[in-house]
Design the sequence.
């Protein structure tokens, strides 16, 4: 196996483990949960920077448009980003964030922007929420909180 194949399998293993751990979490964690998506951004952004540096900004495009599998991967990415943004944007708006700004960030940076949006949302929710209230109670969004980016 090549190094790239090992990295791909390692990424799958990390993602699967993270998803399984999340399903086992019954209560709100005491530590700053926003650090998880924020921490994931760093190595992912580094990998992205390496890809851009070695393959140019749109080096992914020929891979995605060359075959039916490439197109399937492209639409899978778009559908997953859209679904995740759809699910997150109401929480982000309730926390006082401007969805219009974040849709541009997510559409131009993909998973990096989505992870940053998630980290910011969780951080703001934790700042607003009284102890034991996972979603910030009545604070935020249309209830009079100032909008944040």
Sequence:
């Amino acid at each position: 196996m090549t190094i790239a194949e090992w990295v791909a399998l390692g990424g799958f293993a990390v993602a699967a483990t993270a998803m399984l751990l999340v399903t086992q979490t019954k209560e709100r964690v005491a530590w700053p949960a926003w650090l998880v998506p924020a921490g994931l951004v760093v190595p992912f952004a580094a990998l992205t920077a390496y890809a851009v540096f070695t393959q140019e900004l749109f080096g992914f495009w020929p891979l995605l448009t060359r075959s039916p599998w490439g197109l399937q991967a492209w639409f899978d990415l778009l559908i997953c980003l859209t679904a995740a943004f759809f699910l997150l944007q109401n929480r982000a708006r309730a926390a006082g964030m401007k969805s219009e700004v974040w849709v541009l960030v997510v559409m131009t940076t993909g998973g990096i922007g989505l992870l940053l949006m998630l980290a910011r949302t969780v951080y703001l929710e934790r700042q607003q929420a009284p102890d034991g209230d996972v979603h910030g109670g009545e604070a935020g969004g249309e209830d009079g909180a100032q909008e944040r980016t």
In short: The chain has six helices and no strands.
